[in-house]
Write a structure and sequence with these properties.
Layout: E1 3-4, E2 20-21, H1 26-41, H2 45-48, E3 57-61, E4 75-81, H3 88-109, H4 122-126, E5 132-134, H5 137-148, H6 157-167, H7 172-175, H8 184-198, E6 203-209, E7 212-217, H9 219-227, H10 240-254, E8 260-264, E9 268-271, E10 278-286, E11 290-299, E12 302-308, E13 321-322, E14 328-329, E15 346-351, H11 356-367, H12 376-382, E16 385-391, E17 394-397, E18 403-405, E19 412-414
Helix pairs in contact: 3-10, 6-8, 10-11
Length: 415
């Protein structure tokens, strides 16, 4: 995110240039795309590196070095140290401490690999089916939001495990063992898993109040899971960082640290800054190649969600697999049959009232499908969630506030 404001000495982006990346030289293409997307999302580490620990100004805040596991590697947290008038060194230490604490707690809450003392987490729920489990309030809140919007995406745990294995494959030979589009056995497995996920009689998370839940799992599903060595009935998967971003943002805001913005590698942004500074998000289009189409300019506080049908490099590669012929598998799995689907190369929604998780849950039915229908976007706009999308080199936006600029050759803007 670029930042500009009158009477402020802020780092700024170099002039925006058009980038067109061919389908050849995959590694270079992905690396360049990753750089562009991260710049658009606010990862200006190269600029913030000029600010020393005792100086005011924009800085990338990182979790404190320790042996603790955190979700900090999934996020870039940019903060304008000293903007509140506080001592730069004292504020830097305080905001780093709070961010580290929150990033550590978020990791433990959504962890599916192990249990953590004092934190009722997702692992505990998965490994105690048909029992009452007291969970962390953060996790209970996430479960409640899923229930509010009727989303059953979290029940695709065994199916997501197949895709995660696919995404870690290093070549097409290995990928063929896991890709349900080419492997009939895997297609049957994800279809069966999706059928269980759709069926409340097979699996249903019961919210009992006071942060207590019970994951009700049928005998048939338990037997199927045991036979197939499926451990996780529930998994947030592509939704996880939406909830994490909201938790981190809310924690920092409650702590009084609002002169900054958080962005995750997989497209979730929480802008905390209500000072009037202008932020920008690069908008992309992908057909035969990846193109930068324009720039969305906005002011915060705001939440932005970008769902993409292509990898961007770095950690984002663990959420996609690209075949040598160019076919891409994504984390956006359809409950109807367990196959991944995307309606557009990229869809961005943003709001000044809703958080990332709420936006993502409302986007999912519109994005995880074969054909894109723009009609429901007006319903979202009526709820204060605006959309930016591109098709046939035409950028469209229904936002009354955000301005799209820097249109590139061959691209037009329509509302």
């Amino acid at each position: 995110m670029g930042r500009t404001a009158k009477n402020r000495d802020l780092p700024h982006l170099p002039p925006v240039e058009r980038v067109e990346l061919s389908s050849k030289h995959l590694v270079l293409r992905i690396a360049a795309a990753a750089l562009l997307l991260l710049i658009g999302a606010g990862a200006l580490a190269y600029a913030f590196g000029n600010f020393m620990s005792g100086e005011d100004g924009w800085r990338e805040i990182e979790v404190s070095a320790s042996n603790e596991l955190t979700c900090g590697s999934d996020f870039v947290f940019s903060y304008n140290i000293g903007a509140s008038g506080a001592s730069a060194s004292a504020e830097a230490r305080a905001v780093t401490a709070l961010y580290t604490q929150a990033a550590t707690h978020a990791y433990r809450v959504f962890d599916t690999v192990q249990s953590w003392e004092g934190v009722g987490n997702l692992y505990d729920v998965n490994h105690r089916p048909n029992e009452i489990v007291e969970v962390d309030p953060v996790l209970y809140g996430a479960f409640s939001l899923l229930e509010k919007y009727g989303s059953r995406a979290i029940y695709l745990g065994p199916v997501y495990a197949v895709y995660q294995s696919l995404f870690f494959c290093q070549d097409d030979g290995a990928a063929a063992e896991f890709d349900p589009f080419v492997n009939e056995a895997m297609a049957a497995f994800v279809s069966e898993g999706a059928a269980f996920a759709r069926d409340p009689a097979a699996v249903e998370l019961e919210l009992l109040g006071d942060d207590r839940v019970r994951l009700n799992v049928s005998e048939d599903y338990l037997a199927w899971a045991e036979y197939n060595e499926a451990e996780d009935f529930l998994d947030f998967f592509w939704l996880k960082n939406a909830f994490v971003a909201d938790y981190l943002a809310d924690t920092l805001t409650e702590g009084g640290y609002t002169y900054g913005a958080l962005s995750s590698y997989d497209g979730y942004i929480r802008n905390l800054d209500g000072s009037g500074v202008s932020y920008s998000l690069n908008l992309f289009d992908r057909a035969d190649s990846l193109l930068q189409a324009g720039v969305l300019n906005y002011t915060g506080p705001a939440a932005l969600v970008t769902l993409r049908a292509y990898p961007t490099g770095g950690d984002g590669l663990s959420r996609y697999y690209q075949w040598e012929n160019g076919d891409i598998r994504t984390p956006f799995v359809d409950l109807s049959d367990g196959l991944c689907r995307t309606a557009l190369p990229q869809l961005t929604c943003w709001s000044k009232t809703a958080g990332c998780a709420e936006i993502a849950l409302k986007m999912a039915p519109l994005y995880i499908t074969d054909g894109f229908d723009p009609a429901p976007l007006e319903d979202l706009a009526g709820e204060g969630i605006w959309t930016v999308w591109c098709r046939d080199r035409v950028l469209r936006s229904n936002s009354p506030e955000g301005e799209i600029t820097h249109l590139y050759d061959g691209y037009t803007l329509a509302k």
